[in-house]
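Data availability (excerpt). All sequences and predicted token strings are deposited with the supplementary files. A representative entry, Gas vesicle protein, is shown inline so that the format can be inspected without opening the archive.
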Amino acid sequence: MANNTGTTILALLTGAAIGAGVGLLYAPDKGENTRKKLNKEAKKAKKRLDEQVKETSSNLSESAKSAKLNFESKLEETLSSASYKADDILSAMEEKLEALREKNAKFQKEVKKEEVKTNVKNATA
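Structure token line:
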């Protein structure tokens, strides 16, 4: 939208400058006076164009700042959400690991019992 406004204003200023230049060239005045008028009008057009460039640049700068703040906010939300999910995953993994340790301990006890039974059977036989 700002680009269309800038293009429109630039077209209007260019048209005004060309129109003023053509008008001055056909005006019944001395060459020196005509050159002064052309110079004066060119300076006015340059000043208006510089002001428009500053305004457009300021608008773009504000838009960029707003977009940056919005991006940073969304990034922070995403990171926070990911952090909570990571904590949930770690908790679930720790619970599974503890369950596996308990099963392993039971299995080791059963293996020891079987070894003892086998040793006792072999010793008595």
